[in-house]
Automatic annotation (TrEMBL):
Residues 210-356 form the Acyl-CoA dehydrogenase/oxidase C-terminal domain. This is Acyl-CoA dehydrogenase family protein. Residues 107-198 form the Acyl-CoA oxidase/dehydrogenase middle domain. Belongs to the acyl-CoA dehydrogenase family. It comes from Geoglobus acetivorans.
Length: 357
């Protein structure tokens, strides 16, 4: 797996600025598909790499050091594969793992009415007619929406939290994707999706009708660890460029790195990165409560990434805000960590729930 990541990282490094500028992976998408990384979380008996959350963290961290958008695309793909691994029937695994080894997957939960309150906001209609469901409605802020062939879609089949159902849908004319021009983590194929009478056979329901919330939340929780590793990679990238700049930039008869105030800023970031790395990898090795551990990691990841990006811009001064510069890109990427895969406040609710139980 390390070889795949190293090779992919060197390809992505060359194109990272272009991917950010164009908000599109371009030919890097082919490199991703051909690299074997799509099998990251798919069990070996189905032809995958058989990785777990620890491996996914390593992949996310390493790729986010060069492009958070590419890292996020791969992690959301793996999350779609993980939904099949955790909740799919044997027949669904046999059908969809081979597809997910070659083509991109995504998981589409969020709608325009609000992403945090999943049970209250999902209204994409899934109506049963005979042995199939017809899906109509829209989703937004969907990573890989532009690239995906396989969609894990949460739709409404009834009232309340038990009225949600998770489907595996395949790319068809009825699914239209519109690119979203987000500030950070660009190139992840973020899109709004319109579903117009998309037919999904009942055999492509995950678990059973009404289990959609369980599938969505149960898949998101452990996958917040790899997602948090993207924040770690961004923070490490920020520290690296800030140290490099501080050592080179002349000021007051020396370099910025001679100034204790600058040294303290860099040291603070290094300490926070250390704390995040240890928390994250410890949780990935010994996960016992994915809801809690995923939420803790995600809160810390957003905090550390934002702090590191702030310091990077600070060290670069006005140059740190030049459009497309490394510090400016990291600044946009870091803020994005806060919302994708669950907003910080919602993560705090999960932590508080455990404290107060
Ligand atoms: C880059 C990116 C990629 C994404 N990829 C996907 C994807 O692949 N699939 C998918 O389904 N979704 C995806 N999302 C959507 C993401 O899950 C939502 O943005 C997130 O859940 C928050 O929902 P919202 O943006 O609608 O904000 P809202 O739910 O409208 O919340 C707005 C603000 O209110 C706060 N808030 C909400 N509820 C509470 C509360 N109870 N207490 C205190 N504060 C609260 C939030 O913290 C937030 O700051 C992505 C988002 C981003 C930014």
């Amino acid at each position: 797996m390390q070889k795949i990541v190293d090779e992919l990282k060197s390809i992505v490094r060359e194109k990272a600025a272009e991917i950010d500028r164009n908000n599109d992976m371009g030919d890097v998408l082919d490199a991703v598909k051909e690299s074997g990384i799509l099998g990251l979380i798919i069990p070996e008996e189905y032809g995958g790499l058989g990785g777990g959350y620890y491996d996914a963290c390593v992949v996310a961290e390493e790729l986010a050091k060069v492009s958070a958008g590419v890292a996020h695309s791969i992690i959301v793909h793996s999350m779609a594969a993980d939904a099949v691994r955790l909740y799919g029937s044997e027949e669904q695994k046999e059908i969809f793992f081979p597809k997910l080894l070659k083509s991109i997957g995504t998981i589409a939960i969020t709608e325009g009415k609000g992403g945090s309150d999943v049970a209250g906001s999902v209204s994409l209609k899934a109506e049963k007619q005979g042995d199939a469901y017809t899906l109509s409605g829209s989703k937004t802020l969907i990573t890989n929406g532009m690239y995906a062939d396989v969609f894990i879609v949460v739709g409404r089949t009834g009232e309340g939290p038990k009225g949600l159902t998770a489907f595996i849908a395949e790319k068809s004319e009825g699914i239209k994707a519109t690119r979203i021009d987000l500030a950070g983590m660009r190139g992840s194929g973020l899109a709004s999706l319109q579903f117009d009478n998309v037919e999904v056979h009942e055999s492509n329901v995950l678990v059973k009708e009404g289990a959609g919330l369980k599938v969505a939340l149960g898949t998101l929780a452990p996958n917040r660890l790899p997602f948090s590793a993207i924040g770690l990679g961004i923070a490490e990238r920020c520290l690296e460029i800030a140290v490099e700049r501080a050592k080179k930039r002349k000021a007051f008869g020396g370099t910025l790195s001679d100034l204790q105030a600058v040294q303290f800023m860099l040291a603070d970031v290094a300490v926070e990165i250390e704390a995040l790395r240890r928390t994250l990898y410890d949780a990935a090795r010994n996960m016992s409560d994915p809801g809690y551990e995923g939420a803790v990691a995600k809160i810390l990841s957003a905090r550390v990434a934002k702090k590191a990006a702030d310091v990077a811009v600070e060290v670069f001064g006005g140059h740190g805000l030049l459009r497309g510069s490394k510090a400016e890109r990291a600044y946009r990427d870091a803020k994005t960590i806060e919302f994708a895969e669950g907003a910080t406040e919602v993560m705090k609710l999960l932590v508080a729930r455990k404290l107060l139980a």
